[in-house]
Design goal:
two-stranded antiparallel ribbon; alpha+beta
Length: 589
């Protein structure tokens, strides 16, 4: 099995030359961040995730998890690993300093998250859900709730979950039935939730569940949902764990992948009601939960990138070693990496992974600027940009995760279909990412409905203008062929968005019919332009013999491969958008 090596140089190049991390160094609280500090953090993280976490991936997948006596038993290989992770200070990297965090940018935190997810995706979901709870309580919790819960969550001493889905309520949260009855200074919750990631375990001292429920007399539908803190253990004022709360796992799902992540069915209130504490105001729960979901959607998009990187490395190592067939003019057996079709697959895997990483880290720069820039109008601009990019990151990056992990199996041939080689796990693990935190179809609807139609395409036009500048930058560096291909794709985006804006109001099924393909059109173009930006920057450095020559050449080659092998898909996506809804809605099934 090929060892996972963190691609630190790739990540550093994208951080500096595509995601523009330097923009963050002048923000309040980030003045001490230097290139040397960033590189030191990434190298230290790489050592830990390569040596300690990555070796557990296949073992934990085989060991899995199960419920025994109303508690989850996790994979034995993970026992002790979470404590190592916390002792290294990794959970607190981006946490607020006033609550014990290190106060580093979320953009940098996402690079560390990529390492963790590549090393062991199932294990990475534990801190991912905790971060969502931190985000929600940080925005909407009371001062006392922040002071009590955030230091323990940021340090990793306690972990968190989000509890939305019920057997009858998947995407439609208006159907939630879990009840919350007021009782003194708290509530008693009764109900059942399903698909709760890391809903129970013994790796941390306590688990803080954020639970959607209805209070007595609440309005019907999503307007009547409230959000509650439901701890596994009810604590005293000093944080000492007291009584076991009435919140138990009653089963874990037998899943296609991420076997080491306990996906629980949680029962609240079978023995009198689970103690819960209201977050914010009653009937505002959906708004509060979206604080978790939007961050989680970005993190899930990153999962597509992370598993793609691991699958690519595995396939590349195999292709260098596997002898099969010969090359023209030679009699000896050739490594399959020498065959053009295998090179095509490997280079597409690399280009898609780089494109996803560039899109994700660029989005996170906007995330940090929206949160920390001192100028209000600037914050608003970056918030609009992150709003637009979120469905692209979540959906496009998880779609390419499915493709790249599938190509990894293909390169292994028949051995890729055998669990022994390990590449099938990447495909199994990646598949869920296009489904959870809002399916990719839902992301398409979010894009066309909230992010395009609702503002008349203003968010998209602003992004397109930025991409125009990237194309001009490519031309300035004599990357004419690359610039032409990017310009063609961007023209298709403009035409598709214009068609949507003019025709959707009179054709109720149009937006839903074209949403996914429009998202893939925009995602492919944005990723290609970001890689073009990196290629232009690298070309300039090459011309003056500055920087790392090897990584500069890789950035240029990757952008060219993307332009030749991936960007032509935009013609197909645009054609499907132009086809509209008529056949889809009238064809027989």
């Amino acid at each position: 099995m090929t060892d996972y090596r963190v691609p630190v140089q790739d990540q550093l190049f994208i951080l500096k030359h595509i995601a523009d991390l330097d923009q963050l160094k002048v923000l309040p609280g980030y003045e001490e961040i230097s290139d040397e500090l960033i590189e030191a953090i990434l190298n230290e993280a790489a050592t830990f995730f390569q040596s300690e976490v990555a070796p557990t991936n296949a073992i934990a997948d085989k060991q899995g998890c199960h419920v025994d006596s109303n508690k989850v038993e996790v994979a034995p290989v993970l026992q002790g690993l979470y404590r190592q992770y916390c002792d290294g200070g990794w959970p607190s990297l981006t946490g607020r300093p006033q609550f014990g965090g290190q106060g580093l940018p979320h953009t940098l935190g996402f690079v560390i998250d990529e390492m963790l997810q590549s090393a062991n995706l199932a294990f990475s979901l534990l801190p991912l859900l905790t971060q969502g709870v931190i985000t929600a309580l940080g925005r909407y919790g009371s001062d006392s709730q922040k002071a009590f819960y955030l230091p323990r969550l940021i340090s990793g001493e306690w972990t968190g979950t989000m509890n939305l889905t019920e057997p009858q309520a998947g995407t439609d949260l208006g159907l939630v039935k879990t009840r919350a009855e007021p009782e003194g200074n708290h509530y008693r919750l009764v109900g059942q939730k399903i698909f709760i990631t890391w809903g129970d375990h013994s790796l941390a001292d306590n688990i803080i569940h954020l639970v959607l429920a209805r209070t007595p007399g609440a309005p019907e539908g999503v307007k009547g949902i409230s959000l509650f803190i439901v701890p596994k253990f009810v604590s005293s004022a000093d944080g000492t764990l007291a009584e076991r709360n009435d919140a138990y796992p009653i089963g874990v799902e037998e899943k296609m992948g991420i076997h080491a992540s306990p996906t629980c069915t949680m029962s609240f209130g079978e023995n009198g009601g689970a103690v819960g504490y209201l977050v914010g105001e009653e009937n505002q729960g959906l708004k509060y939960m979206f604080a978790m979901m939007n961050h989680a959607r970005l993190a899930v998009g990153l999962q597509g990138v992370s598993v793609s990187e691991r699958a690519f490395q595995h396939a590349l190592g195999y292709a260098r070693q596997r002898l099969q067939g010969s090359r023209p003019g030679r009699s000896e057996a050739a490594a399959i990496i020498e065959h053009p079709d295998v090179r095509r697959m490997l280079l597409v895997m690399q280009a898609l992974t780089w494109g996803g990483r560039a899109m994700t880290l660029s989005a996170m720069t906007h995330f940090d600027l929206a949160a920390h820039h001192p100028d209000k109008k600037t914050r608003e601009f970056h918030q609009q940009r992150i709003d637009l990019l979120t469905p692209l990151v979540k959906a496009w990056c998880t779609e390419i995760g499915n493709e790249v992990t599938s190509l990894g199996i293909q390169i292994h041939g028949g051995m890729g279909y055998v669990e022994e080689t390990g590449v099938a796990q990447y495909y199994r693990d990646a598949r869920i990412a296009a489904i959870y935190e809002g399916t990719n179809g839902i992301q398409g609807l979010d894009l066309v409905g909230r992010k395009l139609l609702l503002n008349g395409g203003a968010f998209a036009r602003s992004l397109f203008e930025e991409l125009d500048d990237v194309i001009e930058l490519c031309r300035e560096q004599q990357l004419e062929s690359l610039a032409d291909k990017l310009a063609q794709a961007l023209t298709l985006c403009r035409e598709a968005v214009a068609t949507l804006l003019t025709t959707a109001p009179d054709r109720p099924d149009l937006a839903g019919a074209v949403a996914f393909n429009l998202l893939m059109l925009l995602g492919t173009t944005v990723a290609g332009c970001y890689l073009g930006k990196g290629a232009a920057k690298a070309t300039g450095m090459e011309s003056f013999n500055s920087g790392n020559t090897e990584i500069n050449r890789k950035a240029i080659d990757t952008a060219l491969v993307f332009a030749e092998q991936v960007l032509p898909r935009c013609q197909a996506y645009a054609g499907m958008v132009r086809a509209g809804e008529n056949t889809l809605m009238s064809a027989q099934l």
